[in-house]
Amino acid sequence: MAAGALAQGVPVPETAAPQTAQGDLSLTIYNGDLALVQDVRQLTIAQGRSRVEFPDVSARIQPETLSFAAAGTTIIEQNFDYDLLTPGKLMEKAIGQTVTLLRTNPATGTETRERARVLSTAGGVVIQIGERIEVLRDDGLPVRVIFDRVPPGLRARPTLSVNLDSARGGTRQVALRYLTNGLGWNADYVALYNEADGTIDMQGWVTLTNSTGTTFHNADTVLVAGNPASGPNGGGGGNRYPQRGMTRAGTEAAARERLGDFYLYPIRGRTTIANAQTKQVSFLDVQAVPARKVYAASVGWQQNDEQPRNVQSRIAFSSSRGSGLGDALPAGTVRFYQRDREGTPQFIGENAIDHTPMGSALSLVTGDAFDITVKADIEKRETISGAEWEKSARYRVFEGGQTREVTVERPTTFYRTTMRYTLTNAKAAPVEVELTQTGLARGWWGDDTRVTLEDIKGEQVNADRRTYVVPVPAEGERVIRVTYETRY
User: Fold this and answer.
1) How many Cβ atoms from other residues are within 10 Å of residue 116's Cβ?
2) Domain limit, last residue, from 101, 126, 146
């Protein structure tokens, strides 16, 4: 397992030095399309007031987050020119201006030139040639538009400009620091499941994406796993939803560097992250981790299935140090494979995980089991009297202390419900199915649910859920019944 920096492949030597104005780059990339760029350059700054330009910054920079530092200088004003030189922008900036159309006759190869005035680019390019109005069609005919000059405000590269007041002239170190969108990463896991041995081999990959409009050259890069708060209201921190696939949270500390409450995943060596590029580097490689297949199904309260349902197929494993992956797992997607009879790995399903502490237990759904089904039926539902209800009471609670007069609303009707669960197994081997009855907690008025009869002893997970582990014979069927007495 790579417990330190993320490994990279064999470097390929570049044939020429990159054409960039960037200096010594450091990137800190967070989950959720956010990155911190730190760029240290050597620039010549004149004494007094001057304008300094910084090309090759991110086109998706957050200008309000810019920090500029240079000895003996004071910032007066900063501007970010984000209109990049593209064909579409050229046409937009040319509205009201005159351009040259160069048309080529596809039959003869003869070229003709006409001067045209650009009227509009909304939904297409509308031009005026003399007294006639035309739409510049995009029909594949050889037509070129020649501009007399580059319109002001368009730049070939994203450029930041700063107006400075410097106490002295000369070359010195200038440090830029800013946040940008468009740089992000997530984890992808490839797990090879060996059902016979009850193990998985897992590789973890970091997938970097760059949609900033800028290539970052030879950058010292570190990835942060976590959800730092962002935005004016501090949103973005913490998970709003339950952890996907995590059945028990871990309590083991991973052997990784931390930044506050986040884990750091540095990339070994400097790397270039090109614009519009997806890059993958390895951070996890573990073999023979104990794992097991789990069949599971959930049934809602008073659920009456019209037909049998396939149960879920899951793979359960741990991220613990002693009997698992031995690492904290960044959020991402786990893709499972299993070898067929020929020994070829075949895809069997995938699921997502959130940031998972080391030592956690996970159970990830890979799909529906083809041969195993469950069917829930309300076999019997009847009302019972208050006296019958009292017979199933297990305890009484009396409040002592101060005497007060209260009004208690007592229901006069109670219910007895017998659920029948039919499980089938078309496999040649017996299986166990984790069957969970949900919907047992109905609020303050119905939280006294009583299980009076059950064919298999269940485990009360919480007030709302009770789970049964049901053995189902090979090529067979198993029927179990449970009786509940409720206020609803």
Assistant:
1) 20
2) 146
Say if residue 48 is in the same domain as residue 137: no
Residue 1 lies in a domain: no
Q: Which two tokens stand for residue 213?
A: 């409009």
- Give CA–CA dist 402/405, Å, rounded: 10
Higher pLDDT, 257 or 85: 257
pTM of the model: 0.70
Residue 429 belongs to a domain: no
Centroid of chain to Cα 129: 52
φ/ψ region of 88 (left if φ > 0, alpha if ψ in -120 to 50, else beta) reads alpha
Does one domain contain both 63 and 159?
yes
Q: 361: how many CB neighbours lie within 10 A of its CB?
A: 17
Nearest-angstrom CA–CA distance, 438 and 441: 8
Q: In the predicted model, what is the mean pLDDT of the chain?
A: 83
User: Can you name the residues that pair with 347 across neighbouring β-strands?
Assistant: 337
DSSP SS3 for 88: helix
Decide if 25 contacts 39 (C-beta within 8 A). yes
* Cβ atoms of 466 and 459 closer than 8 Å: yes
Rounded CA separation 125/84 (Å):
19
Tell me how far apart the alpha carbons of residues 251 and 249 are, in angstroms, rounded to a whole number: 7
What's the pLDDT tens digit per position in 124-143?
Answer: 888 888 888 888 766 556 67
* For the chain, the helix, strand and coil percentages under 3-state DSSP, each to the nearest 5: 5, 55, 40
Domains in the chain, number: 2
Identify the helix (H) or strand (E) that includes residue 305: none
Q: Do 77 and 40 lie in a common domain?
A: yes
Do 46 and 136 reside in the same domain of the chain?
no
CATH code for the domain of 173 = 2.60.40
Residues 196, 334: Cα–Cα separation, whole Å: 21
Quick check: is 306 in a domain?
no
CA distance 76 to 64: 14
Burial annotation 322-354 (CB, 10 A radius, 16+ → b, else e): eebbbbbbbbbebebbbeeeeeeeeeebbbebb
Say which amino acid occupies 256. Answer: R
Task: Provide the domain limits for residue 72.
Answer: 34-84+155-180
